[in-house]
Amino acid sequence: MIRKRCKYLFLLAFILTTILPTHGVLADTGPKPSMTFTFTGEPVTIVSGVLYECQQADCSDAAPLEELGPQRFYCDADGCSAIAYGFAPYHQIEIEFSDGVTRESNIFETAGFDSEYTVTVQSDGLLVEAQFSLSPNINPVSSPRIGIYIVLACACLLVAGSLLVAGVIFFIRRRSKS
Fold first, then answer.
1. Measured distance CA(177)–CA(157) in Å, rounded
2. From residue 88, how far is each of 51, 58, 64, 95, 98 by CA, in Å?
3. Could you report the per-residue pLDDT of 150-162, keeping only the tens digit for each?
4. Domain boundaries, the chain
5. pLDDT tens for residues 113-136?
6. Which residues contact 8 (CB under 8 A, 6 or more apart)?
7. What is the pTM of this model?
8. Domain 34-131: which CATH class?
9. Closest Cα partner for 128 from 3, 41, 24, 57?
């Protein structure tokens, strides 16, 4: 009798696990390169914008940054930002402003993993300049290179500590044999 109940319970559990929905798995982890654009110059608000990515230095192969998962270019009234799985080497932005004029920027290069740019709004266009910081953000989550250095430093300390312990044990045993 107990065997028959176990068989039915197992069958019920099997059916329930096959028909009940399961939670999806998210595999998109880790930091992603980003760009932040701060606008100065003429006092106009941003309506919309497009970030063009280019492999060629003259941007003859310009294509808008695709929206894929978290990857996108977005603007609010005062500034724009972009996040991507990876950026092309060259870029150009095209921004529509509240005065009805759409302005295009100069061609600029990717400045780093978390790039910051100052955009000067002019009457005939946009001037994008990279902002470099002398004190980088030393956060392993936002800078993968720092994380690698930390792992290497820990590995070196582990090896050095092991060699020190092995040396102490070797000299203690040698002294006790004499």
1. 30
2. 11, 13, 11, 19, 29
3. 878 888 888 888 8
4. 34-131, 138-178
5. 888 999 999 888 999 999 875 544
6. none
7. 0.59
8. mainly beta
9. 41
